[in-house]
Amino acid sequence: MPRFVDRVVIHATAGNGGHGCASVHREKFKPLGGPDGGNGGRGGSIVLVVDPQVHTLLDFHFHPHVVAPSGKQGAGSNRDGAAGADLEVRVPDGTVVLDDQGRVLADLVGAGTRFEAAAGGRGGLGNAALASRARRAPGFALLGEKGQVRDLTLELKTVADVGLVGFPSAGKSSLVSVISAAKPKIADYPFTTLVPNLGVVSAGDNTFTVADVPGLIPGASEGRGLGLEFLRHIERCAVLVHVVDCATLEPGRDPVSDIEALEAELAAYTPTLQGDTALGDLTERPRAVVLNKIDVPDARELADFVRDEVVRRFGWPVFEVSTVSRDGLRPLTFALWELVSAYRQAQPPVVPRRPVIRPVPVNDSGFTVESDGRGGFVVRGARPERWIGQTDFENAEAVGYLGDRLNRLGVEDELLKLGAKPGCAVTIGDMTFDWEPQTPAGIDMPLSGRGTDIRLEQTDRVRAAERKVARRERRRSGGDE
C-alpha cells in the first residue's frame, strides 16, 4: 500500500566545477606555441520542478541524498571540459522549501514552477584564459569551484479548493468517500485519518477538489494530537467546512461548542506563509457548516434544534447531511462550488513571480576584514573565499596570481589600515597564510619558469646558503692576511 509522506529532509549536493588545464601548444617547428589549456566545465545544479503527476514526497523519504554530476576537466588544444547536466527533481504541487534554519526559500505552486535548490560550481579557467600582457604563458590553471551543499526541508501543503475540518470521528472521511471517488480509510475509532485524503467532486459541469485532513482537537495549534501535521494542510484551501458530529455521546460536546473550539485553534495557528498563494489570511476564508449523521434520529433532532443558532452566531451556511442515507449531499456539493467560485473570483489574479535583481552598492567592497583576537585577521567575502578554492597551493605561480587578485580587490590595503604586521596570520576560508605585505600586482612582473613566481623568492631574509658563502669569504680573507 502506498504511503503518504508530507515532510522530508533532503541532502542536496550540486556538482563540482571541472579544473582548468595548464597546457602549452606544441607542434613541429613550434615547441612553445603559447598556452592552449581549456576551461573546466561547470557542475550540474539541482533544480526542483513541480510535476502534477507527483503527489507525495515518498521517494525522498527512502532516497534523501540528491547528487548532481560534476563538470569535466579542460584539456589541451583549447578544449573545454563538458558541463555537468542539471538534475531536475520532481516534487508535488504545493511544496514549500525551507533551509536548515527554518527560513522559507521557495513556495512551489503551479505546474512547471522551478527552484534552484543547490547551485553547481563554476569551472576553473585554463591557462589560455589566464594569459595577459604581463603573464604570456601561465604555468597554472584555476581549480573548479565546489558545488553547493545544502540540507533542505520539503513540506507538502495539500492544494485543495475545500478543506474539511472537524473533531476526530466527525465523518470527514465518509463525506469525502460519498461525494467523490476517493476511498479513504474509515473506522469507528478516533484519528483513523493520519494523512490528507484528496477527492475530486463534480457539481454539474464544474469540478473542484476536497481535502479530508486529520482530526483536530483543542490545543492542536500548540502541537497537541496531530497538531501542526493537520493545520499545515488547510493553508491553501479556499473554503473551510466544519463537519460536526451530531450523534456524538461525549459529555460536554455540542455542535456550537465544537465549532467554537475549531475556530479558536484556527485563529491561534500562524501559517508558514502569510497570504499564501493570494488566498488571503486564514481567518478570512469562507466557511460552511455540515451537520453530519442525521440518519440517526437523535442526531436529526439535534441538527434541527441548533441550525438556527449556528446561523445566528456565525452567519455561515448550514447543511444537514447523512453519508449513510446520502441525504443533503447534492445541495451541499453545488453550494460548495458556488462558495469556491465566488471566493476565487474575488481574489486578485496570481501574478507570475519575477526574478528579483539586487544590485551591489557602489561602496560595497565585497569583503570584510576582522581581527581574530590573537594577532591575526580573518577575511570574509564571496570572492576571496571562492578564489581560495580555485587556487592550487602547490603551484607557486598560482599563489602569486592569488596575491594579485587579493591586492587588486583591496584586501592588502585594508589589512594595512587595521595594523597588520608582516608574518601575521591571515585566514581566508579554510586557508591560513603568513602575510607578506606590498605584493606587486603583476603589471610588470619579471619572467620566470613555468609554475614558479619570482616574487615569492624575493625576501630580505639571509638564507643558509648565503650565510655559508659569506663565512667562507671571511675565512679566506682572514687567511690571506
UniProtKB/TrEMBL annotation:
Annotated stretches, region: Disordered: 441-481
GO biological process, one term: ribosome biogenesis
Binding positions for GTP per the UniProt entry: 166-173, 191-195, 212-215, 292-295, 322-324
Pfam families reported in the protein's UniProt record: DUF1967 (PF09269), GTP1_OBG (PF01018), MMR_HSR1 (PF01926)
Gene3D superfamilies (alphabetical): GTP-binding protein OBG, C-terminal domain, GTP1/OBG domain, P-loop containing nucleotide triphosphate hydrolases
Main location: cytoplasm
Biased composition (Basic and acidic residues): 452-468
Residue ranges occupied by any Obg domain in the UniProt entry: 2-159
Gene Ontology, cellular component aspect: cytoplasm
Keyword terms, alphabetized: Cytoplasm, GTP-binding, Hydrolase, Magnesium, Metal-binding, Nucleotide-binding
One of the record's GO molecular function terms: GTP binding
Domain OCT as annotated: residue spans: 359-437
Top-level division of the source organism's lineage: Bacteria
Compartment(s) where it occurs, according to its Swiss-Prot or TrEMBL record: Cytoplasm
Domain OBG-type G: 160-341
PROSITE patterns associated with the record: G_OBG, GTP1_OBG, OBG, OCT
Binding annotation for Mg(2+): 173, 193
Enzyme Commission number(s) of this protein: 3.6.5.-
Cofactor: Mg(2+)
NCBIfam families the record matches: Obg_CgtA, Obg_CgtA_exten, PRK12296.1, PRK12297.1, PRK12299.1
Assembly and binders: Monomer.
PANTHER family: DEVELOPMENTALLY REGULATED GTP-BINDING PROTEIN-RELATED, MITOCHONDRIAL RIBOSOME-ASSOCIATED GTPASE 2
Function noted in UniProt: An essential GTPase which binds GTP, GDP and possibly (p)ppGpp with moderate affinity, with high nucleotide exchange rates and a fairly low GTP hydrolysis rate. Plays a role in control of the cell cycle, stress response, ribosome biogenesis and in those bacteria that undergo differentiation, in morphogenesis control.
Family (UniProt): Belongs to the TRAFAC class OBG-HflX-like GTPase superfamily. OBG GTPase family.
Protein name: GTPase Obg
The species this protein was found in: [Mycobacterium] manitobense
Top-level taxonomy: Bacteria, Bacillati, Actinomycetota, Actinomycetes, Mycobacteriales
